[in-house]
Amino acid sequence: MSEKNNGLSQAEADKLLKKNGLNEVPEPQFNFFKEFLSKLWNLSAWILEAALLLECILGKWIQSFFVLLMLLFAAWNGASKKKQSRRVLNDISHKLTPTNSVKRDGQWQNIDSKYLVPGDLISIQQGDVLAADVKLIDGQISSDESSITGESKTVRKNPPDTAFAGTTVTEGNGLAVVVATGANSRSGKTINLINNSAAPGHLQQLLTKIIYYLCILDGILTLVIVIASFFKGGDIQNLINMLPFLAMMFIASIPVAMPSTFALSNSFEATRLSKEGVLTSDLTGIQDAANLNLILLDKTGTITENKTAVSQWINFSELDDNIILQLASAAVDQRNKKIIDNAIEDFILSNDLKMKSTDNFSPFTSATGYSMANIDNHNIKLGSFKQLSRIDPSANDKVKDIDFSAGRSVALLVDDKLAGVFILQDKVRPDSKKALAELKKRGVLPIMLTGDNQKTAEAVAKQVELQGQVISIHNFNDQTDMGTLAGIADVLPEDKLRVVKFFQSKGYIVGMTGDGVNDSPALKQAEVGIAVSNAADVAKRSGKMVLLNDGLTSIVKILDAGHRVYQRMTTWSLTKLARTAQLTMILTFGYLFFDYIPMALNAMVIYTIMNNMVTMMIGTDRTHITYKPENWNMAKLAKIAFSLAFGWTLIGILGIGFLNTHGYSHGTVSTMVYVFLVLSAMFIILITRTKHYFWQDYPSKSVGLTQLADIVLTIILALFGIAMTKINLTNLLLTFVVALIAAVIIDLFYQPIMKNK
How far apart (Å, rounded) are the C-alpha atoms in residues 382 and 344? Predict the structure, then answer.
């Protein structure tokens, strides 16, 4: 059948493309209003809505307006950042468009699937994700149609069966003619190799934990205020009057800006990585990279160059070299060339010979271990010596003088007799040694995986200075010393999932590189699955990252991106916990010691809104790369944050005591406390965002400008008495000086403690 269909000419394809359009259907547009409404139905929104209802019942209409404003801002901001994240991922998804091997003008070529047209003759093989509806005309395949039917059972296809867009070829190979593209295909949607979920995996857990810690603190302090009010002779009416303040204490605890900050930081890094040769198909891969402490690396194409050459050819047959090599050329896959196919073809062509082709050809599969062709009345098999030696029992005697450790071996059988052996060598990439050193410097244990024999693997490990032992997969077990492991040899693709699960069971956060169909389960299982540049479509869809460039350097960039996200969110968590704890403790202790809450309700609402504005921008802040795997230890973060809050609270209470004993009115004290809290919040961000003293480092432009805007607005509100008691310039400067001195003193204690942790 394939002989009768030579595909389309390029001119015919261009006409059909103009008539039918690109092979894609635009995804449904992002519904901002629907996303906005969804943000009004979650834990944070419920607390705000309950507070809004309470404020309305108590008749606090101005405060109700501010709470409503905060609720709507949180929903609008969350929807906006989701839209931004979606746009970033959509932009990246276009670079992940699968390619197809198509016959145009009588020549096989790889083109983007979006340029397929009805009538195109395409080659399909195991691991392809079909980009259009096709009619099989040659060969047999099995396809996973779960994306259409919802059932994971594979379906066998024989000519002239139809296979559908969006399904994955799980077994077999063949030729097919495109019958429907884009909206006309059964799936009726663009084939996308991207997970459009922008919600980071740890976000909801982290959000819940932060609310939990802050609500415990607020609950305790609220109970203290309630009990103290009765002991101070208060009545029920007094308690009712205090309810708006107590409600605001809980409102201040809500991490309104956290989802936006997390989404902004991840999207920011995804865009940055795309410019550095790494496409992100799942944003959780970026944040998980910060925790990575072990990575499994494919030798070929990752540690070594994606170019393999024949270094030695041994002829065991009685036929002339030229005749044997031309017979071997028929078993080279010329439709979907892999590294070995290219190496052997280059070797044959370099001997001034021509490649032979045949319609009776079966490509290499991991199940058989070889490719096969029938030509000139000969049966040719090309593949693994281990597999082919089972067919020819005399093969082992013939190769006893060959040093298989010199490189990768490919055996050739002619009529089921060993006719020759190719020895192929991979060249170590020039950046591998340096990149592996960088991975180890960052606390990541690199382990090489290869299907080559142990001696070959040891030679490569030595070249790139991978310290430790290289063992065979057959000797890999629970007793293996993980700390001294440099590589695992004789690995089959199906072994990789078992290896990933084994390391995860030992407590490692595992990264993995892969390219093949059988790598897909392991890529999906690993916390950071990385599909390399020449990976099969299904492997790219299974990984969270896709490399555009060969080599290891891009993996270091992924780690750095993860550390940047981690540090920004650590800064956010510390500042949120510290600022909220400081606010609630100052209000509580102020009431206990001085018989009034030392901050106006309006000022409290404004303070909460302004803080959320500046902390949201932390997602774009400058960071410093760290060199050890991180982990989200909320108990540790809470301890550090509450220690910071205690220092600021102590200085604040002492300041309030001074003002009360020196004739300052309650209104003036309230405004000065507001200014002090705003300034302390800005200083807490500057202190926690860096490993240096805050005056030795500076934030990003967006963070700095937002902080400056907050401070300017605070000065205007305080000096002109907007929504609070007016204070003079002297009192404003006094508050600034106290806050600055407090920041210096606290940082002098904070930084040495953090450096020792």
Answer: 10
Asked whether 609 and 714 are in contact (CB, 8 A), the reply is no
Question: In b/e form, how buried is each residue of 470-498, taking b as 16+ CB within 10 angstroms?
Answer: bbebeebeeeeeeeebbbbbbbebebbbe
Element (H, E) at 108: strand 107-112
- Gap between the Cα atoms of 508 and 339, Å rounded: 32
pLDDT at 711 over 90: yes
Contact assessment for residue 263 and residue 569, using Cβ atoms and an 8 Å cutoff: no
What is the per-residue pLDDT across 688-699, written as a single tens digit (0 to 9) for each? 988 889 999 989
pLDDT digits (tens, 9 = 90+) for 492-545: 777 888 999 999 998 899 999 987 666 778 888 999 999 887 776 777 778 888
- CA 609, CA 102: separation in Å to the nearest integer? 57
β-strand partners of 169: 143
Cα diameter, the chain: 111
Closest CA to 462 of 428, 435, 491, 425: 428
pLDDT tens for residues 60-117? 676 677 667 767 776 776 677 667 656 655 665 555 667 788 999 888 888 888 889 9
Question: In the 8-state DSSP scheme, what is residue 301?
Answer: I
pTM, 2 dp = 0.69
Nearest one of 111, 133, 206, 131 to 577, comparing CA atoms: 206
- SS3 call for 290: coil
d(CA 529, CA 514): 8
Using CA atoms, how far apart are residues 695 and 294, in angstroms rounded to an integer?
36
Residue-averaged pLDDT of the chain: 82
DSSP-based three-state secondary structure for 316: coil
Token look-up 């801002």 returns 73
Per DSSP, the residues of 621-633 read ------SS-----
The torsion angles phi and psi of 55, rounded to 5 degrees, stand at -60, -40
